[in-house]
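Cont'd.
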Amino acid sequence: MVKERVTVVDIAHAAGVSKSTVSLVLQGSSLVNEVTRAKVNATIRELGYVYNRSAANLRQSKSKIIGIVVNDLTNSFFAELAVGVDTVVQSAGFVQFLANTNEKIERQREVVASMREHGVSGLIISPARGTEAADLAPLVDSGIPVVLVVRDIADAGVSSLTSDNHAGAMAAVRHLIERGHRRIAFLGGFHDTAVFEARMRGYREALLEAGLDAAEALVIGSAPSRAGGVTAIEQAMMLSDRPTAALCFNDAVAFGVCDGLRARRLEPGADFAVIGFDDVIEAKTAVPALTTVSVDPQGMGQRAAELLLKQINAGKAEAEAIIGSVRLVVRQSCGAAIERRTREALS
Amino acid sequence: MVKERVTVVDIAHAAGVSKSTVSLVLQGSSLVNEVTRAKVNATIRELGYVYNRSAANLRQSKSKIIGIVVNDLTNSFFAELAVGVDTVVQSAGFVQFLANTNEKIERQREVVASMREHGVSGLIISPARGTEAADLAPLVDSGIPVVLVVRDIADAGVSSLTSDNHAGAMAAVRHLIERGHRRIAFLGGFHDTAVFEARMRGYREALLEAGLDAAEALVIGSAPSRAGGVTAIEQAMMLSDRPTAALCFNDAVAFGVCDGLRARRLEPGADFAVIGFDDVIEAKTAVPALTTVSVDPQGMGQRAAELLLKQINAGKAEAEAIIGSVRLVVRQSCGAAIERRTREALS
């Protein structure tokens, strides 16, 4: 079934050029003129030659692969992030390989090792929960350019691109307070992540500056997923002094909160104010359209890719920590002003 | 910044074994006893040795990578499919690299070529729109095991794993007819895909066997996304003789149809019956929970991975075409019986 392998010599012979010229074309060298390059490339396509990248990598210690490692592929935030990375690396002539760790540090170790073994030019990593600087040390020591996205890791010694989660959460809660809400919940997310900690801190500070009580009972963690949002709002609605609004850990949780409200015959936006975090594609088309703190996952992917390419081209990894600004996008789901309280009939 | 490279000789010296023993451990050979293997592995970790997979691939022509190439990563169906593949390849000691083509044949050519160059052991591909057998010929000729998923390609000469889209669509439309619906729309999807064609055929046959008219106007294509669903239902509701129910191309479209209905103050499940296709995770927790034809994306990913591993282990690619069965999962979104017609106030 396997065809006999076409060699560089076959190409040179068919194209009527030297073997070195074919090699230069394969390496993308600028020493070969356009006409010759076109002729060689046409012959390569015609004969079906496959460039042996493994051998080339050994010779050049350089591939045209960018690796991206994400912690939860089922969250559309990360799919959108990867699509953003792809648009940039593609125009730079790279191919992106993605791997999913499903929040498992051991799997992260395996996929990172595998990507290193395959000679990726650089890595973009959204680390699994609980990843520590020591887990990344072998990778960092190897000198391969690395950009951490979404979750930063203290003292990792590599570049990171995160969002101003603290400021975003403050803006969202201030908006809810301006609309008259006094009992505002923080729903969803895992307590042990830096992202959770920063959003929570923003939530608390906005409450404190308005002289409001940040009651422990109003902070309800859950998986950062749609199903987690359903669970969190169910728990919130069982409190004796119910909230009238919520800032959710992310958009997935916010959609679940909307689902859970509807299951109780409460209309999100009319009977209860909901704000998400991320601004995934679906936030705009959902009904009600989701008010959310825009992190712009595709844009974040693009910026991460640009940062990584800069380091790859510079040939060394100068660590930079970039904190991207965020903005509150007011749509319909936060429309519940306080006078339209949770309907008594359903209390 | 780059540490001096640790060699096999360094490992052998530190662990007090021969160089050949270290090599055998690196190759996962069963000739080395447990105690020695553990000692060598501990030394490898301690010294931070990185196995040079490029060199190993050249020697062994074998990697431990499975490539998966999908056509639209922003559709959660494909993220779930990839997660299913991952669970199986992981237990078989492989790592999965994913690439997204965004429905572009040229990008598909690039990522497939790149994966071949990196010596993947096998490929799972959900082909981009318009892919023809000729596009896959170089890959097929190379003898690398390939499994097509979701979309089959006639005469491609490789294994495929698809779903019984025809039977699924028939079951869904029969269910709507049993509930009394006579004006049933088919919403969303691109006309030029085999999946669309099969689902459409099932839709038409179910209408014909019930003596109903399959009016052209009731078939409204759109992007197979949530936003596409919003557009399609808007168009359907402008018809003079409106439908009362719809089979949607996939779950993403169905969610968009629900959004579009709500934007018109129609309650999906109460005022209009909606059935999706795929059964993504979110179908169960949505409100109303989505009635859908279950394709079970994670299960499909698992079966595709098993099929591919079987071919990798057999050392040759015997083409098999597997058509997985599907089943209608009745939840709430199809609850609108015909007597609860579209409310007059909103006509």
